[in-house]
Amino acid sequence: MSTPLQQRFRGWIAAPAYPWVTGGALTAGAVAELIAFPGSVTTTVGVLVSSASLMWRRAFPPIAVLTVAAGLLGFAGDVNLYLSIMASGLIGCYTLGRQRVMHPAVTVSGGALGALCVNLVHINTWSDMNLPVPALWQDGSLSLFAESFLLTVVIFGAVMMGDAVRSREETRDERNLAQARLIAMERQRAASDERAAIARELHDIVSHSVSMIAVQAESATYTTPGLSPEARDGFQQIAGTARASMAELRRILGVLRTPRGKTALTAPQPTLDHLAELVEQHRAVGGAADLLVTGERVTLPAAWELSAFRIVQEALTNVRKHAPGAHTVVKIDYGDGRLLALRIEDDGPGPGPGGAPATGHGLTGMRERAALVGGRLSAGAGPQGGFLVEAELPWESG
């Protein structure tokens, strides 16, 4: 488990300023080293380029190739190995392995070839310095290439370290992703269990109550003496509405109990063809309503049909609730084939005390249904008084 100090150190390394600070500090150290120990022009350029290029290693990782190449060039220009070249070369090789700029085998092979070239330049320099250098392919000549062997080992170690860090982080990311997927599956399972619990509660409480209403309303027509025909019809309407509510509730329970991704076996959703029945139900419970349809009937997508039906249904419910006895006119206009216009207007008291509310859960639900299909809905006082609901549901005709 990481300590706070380790976490702080990792956060500092991950900071955007880290490559700029370290690259700038190494460049400043290289300048100080060159002032203290001047080298050739080739060495000076190689040292400065190798150090300064590290500042862009995170923004542009392939620049590490220039870092390593410039470091080898600076080392080839002088027999002395500068500390800044050692540091920048190691960091450059680590970056090439860490960012996988090239395959590690290609990176190490290129570094080994560069090390061999530097070694050959130094062998030629030793000969010019009158040092005892055996001729190539003679006894003892293999010892001349110890430098290139050592450089290759160092390059190999730095590249492999960077690649190992990369592999470890990829493994950690995969493990975190698998853990996140497991958590998501557990949450989905918990949500499914909660949906099933809600379905059970609805079935045990609401379904029982609604079924009792239906049974009592039906039995009242036979057990209550002296009922007028109107009263008997009213009880039958109550029973019919209760049975319809039971069917709708069973459909909702089926959706709640069906796992996500599977289709619930439900009855067909209501469409605009059922508006006449909806208006008749409104009249049967004492409401006065007319249905006017203009334009050519167009079969709309299921979402549009259901949204329009629910909007009219909720509007009629609001009339019965807030303006009982008011006359309602439901107008449906299919327009030019791309716009369905709904207009539900009553002659009740309108919004305000004793009338329909200007806001409420029902109106919010109607606005959400309209917005769901890209439409809009407005509700408020009508031009002639009463309450007016207008909705426009656009769609693209096929």
Stretches where pLDDT is under 50 for at least 5 consecutive residues are none
Give me the strand/helix succession.
HHHHHHHHHEHEEHEE
Our estimate of the beta-strand percent is 5-15%
Major sheet characteristics: 5 strands, mixed
Q: What's the pLDDT, averaged over the residues?
A: 82
Radius of gyration: 41 Å
Q: What's the shape?
A: rod-shaped
- The helix fraction, in percent, is 55-70%
Strand order of the largest sheet: 1-2-3-5-4
The span between the termini is: 61 Å
**Count of helix runs:** 11
Number of β-strand runs: 5
Which structural class fits the helix and strand makeup? alpha+beta
How would you describe the overall organization of this protein?
The chain has 398 residues and is an alpha+beta fold. It is built from 11 helices and 5 strands; from the N terminus they run αααααααααβαββαββ. The protein has a 5-stranded mixed sheet with strand order 1-2-3-5-4, covered by helices on one side. A hairpin with a 5-residue loop joins strand 4 (376-381) and strand 5. The protein starts with a helix and ends with a strand. The model has no long low-confidence stretch (mean pLDDT 82).
